[in-house]
Design brief:
The protein is an alpha+beta fold. Helix content is 48%, strand content 14%. The chain has 15 helices and 11 strands. Helix 7 packs across helix 9.
Amino acid sequence: MNKHVNKPVPIEYWQVEAAYRKVRRGGKAAGIDEQSWTDFDQKLDDNLYVIWNRMASGSYHPLPVREVEIPKKDGRMRKLGIPTLRDRIAQQVVKHYMEEKIDHLFHENSYGYRPLKSAHDALEQVRRNCYQQDWVIDMDIAGFFDEIDHQVMLKAVRHLLDEKWVHMYVSRWLEMPIQSEDGTLKHKAGKGTPQGGVISPILANLYLHFTLDVWLSRNYPSFRFVRYADDVVVHCNTKEQAEAVLQAIRERLGQVKLQIKEAKTRIAYCKDYRRRQSHQTVKFEFLGFSYQPRKRISKRDGKPFMGFTAEISPSNQKRIRQVIRELKAWRNTQMEITVLADLLNSKLRGWIHYYGKYSCRTFRRTLQTIDKRLITWISKKYKLGYRKSCRKLQVIKQENPTLFYHWQRNY
């Protein structure tokens, strides 16, 4: 196999290998061809060669995307598009190429799905902005990934990238039909990019870079904003400014075939010890955290004051408690407590590393659900009353202080 023959598209074999290593660490769900990673790896070199040869010759055509539904926090279903493993690798090749070319051009206040930027960076910037400006527009874009207009999207791609082969492959991925669970194919009709596709995040950032970020910076340079994918927070000085900007954003999004999700959009007042106006809404949620007035203790003199701070949102507190309660292992009193710890610790690490960023008091109370369940489990396992079960758990903690991850971190 000659991997160095000149091809019309400047994609090299090593790029396909690197893309494989990247997506191999990700999701395991199969596309419509039902090929698993185990199957793919059995003929790894041959499979990678086929992807490279077709991409480099311009003859690569993606298969339809498999549609799956996952539950959202509000009980509704979110539709995801699962490409085949080959399409994920091919998309990663082009995504990486685009990222190197254009990511540095994106607005500094765009944080979602970008190298060297994180959700915590976005949360921290919102916290700082709330200290500087009194009013917040908290907005969400309705069905964003489903509503991306293909013509506007391709115009943005052509504006920043001259390579026709990039235009070609982006166009093909945008046009991929979707196979529903009953096997029927749905065609895009000129809009939408699958939420779940490898290349979709960078396309989403590119779309909103021109349609929102640049527009906000040009028209409202004195107002700060933070965007994480389609979650947007805009900071203003007065309520009147916030109302005017929100209406202007509605009109702007309408021009680019998008609209605000009104049920999730609000204007909030950042009320604290300095800002004492009355307003119906004094809190908002962003990336799983709730920003609102909270009692704080001054580090300087130890006196209490009212701050406007971030903490895990009520909906995510409820979700974590539900995950803990629904763990099937609680029913098994034959297993050892070390097995329970192994089952929970990976979840605990993720929760603590993310939600432990700010104001941990409420988060600690949420994680106390685990110790309460442990007491019930110990009571059933050893046939003890409540008080003896509590004492036994304290003994286990003293003898094994690192057994559960939240014990190590004093949660």
